[in-house]
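User: You have something folded?
Assistant:
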Amino acid sequence: MSEPVAAVAVTKPPVEAHHEEPDPRRWIILAVIAIAQLIIVLDSSIMNIALPDAANDLKIAPQNLQWVITAYTLAFGGLLLLGGRIADYMGRKRAFIIGLIGFAGASALGGLAQNEGMLYGARALQGAFAALLAPAALSLITVTFSEGKERARAFGVFGAISGGGAAIGLIAGGALTEYLDWRWCLLVNLPIAAVTVAFAIPLLRESKAHGDTRFDIPGAVLSIVGLVSLVYGFTEAAKQVTDADGTVHTQGWTDPVVLAWLGAAVVALVAFVIVERKVANPLLPLRIVLNRNRGASYLIFLLVGAGLFGMFLFMTLYLQRVLGYEPLKAGMAVLPFSFGIIIMAGVVAQLLPRVGPKPLMLIGLVFASTGLLLLLRTSPTSSYWGAVFPGLVVMSLGMAAVFIPASSTALIGVGGHDAGIASAVLNTSQQVGGSLGLALLNTFALTATTNKVADLVAAGGDPASKALQATAEVAGFHVAWIGSACMLILALIIAAVMITAKKDELPAEGAIAA
């Protein structure tokens, strides 16, 4: 989604973007933009399936494995607001092409990575260029399609790509990893990007925003420093330490290094809020997030992103490491989740104008958290159909009922001037939530696994036994899934308490969530 599920809020076109006559090439232009969006969405899920193979090849320790995903989502989410501003001020066509070329170059670096640091850096670079490419793509659609019905159809295509792309990524990642090599999960972007750039240069029309075009660089720096420090602090807490007597344990939350990183995060994020209150052209206008319904929507997206990204990571590891699935089979095994959301989205879209957003969100979050808790029935010997499939289906039915209403309430009361930034904050919330959730849940899982190993060995178990290791890993996954469910339950409480919007308050130009 960068994400298992992508949310695309439909915004009004920039004021300078209206053309007297529709561009006769607009549907070809849409195809070019859609392919670029597909690349971004693919890279949110395609590496999930490749993680075990990449870890074996580059000798990545368990506590660091989440950085393959987190480096991408953190850079993407953390830079998305700035990327949107750069695209508006520099020119959307130019930003689109630079973003696409840069994304392809970063993909090449990742595919050729010789160590874990090079892979993390490449993934972060991918996220940075995706943060430039994604908002440019959205803006180009609003520029190209100025007529209401056509624009709605165009965003429908865009939303379908965003939703279906995650499923395609799971299949593609499995096939490429199993039949070629995990590196092709990244290298496959090169030929696709090259063809897309070749069409984009002659087809796309340049457009820029006018008015105040100053960048909020201090805000951008403080937000990134704060988020990276927070994620790194979570990760350090999961670091494994071996005592003099050979006992292995995680570093823990009270370690001075962990506390230093978490303290730095608090300082940077508080400073970010202070800066955003004072600068003339803030990266994140606080009026956007302080509205009750909008703020609640962003918190819900952040928490749901945290829960779902964690679910996908540990589900992938469970299927491949514990059940022994090959990469392609693991990708196929997660598909019911994507299909369930796509099918249910049509039902929810019909119900939203009739019943309003809050009832759907509440029902959806109950279903989603229940689906996560159903995964606690998994064991080293359980069957996919009995223990995994029911949880994925129940979760998917709930998620569609969360994303679509929350995408709409995130735009309530937003004027045309702020529509773009409100949509960007929505997607930023999901990406940042995914980054933080992965780091936190990975810490919980590794701590639980380490403790379970110690308990089993103390009871006379063989530490080299595969059965013991599988039992310990599943115990860790269970703790992570409980953590994910708690995040969704917290989102449920926020929806119940803070969402007050009625069906007649929803924006006329709604939102597409897939």
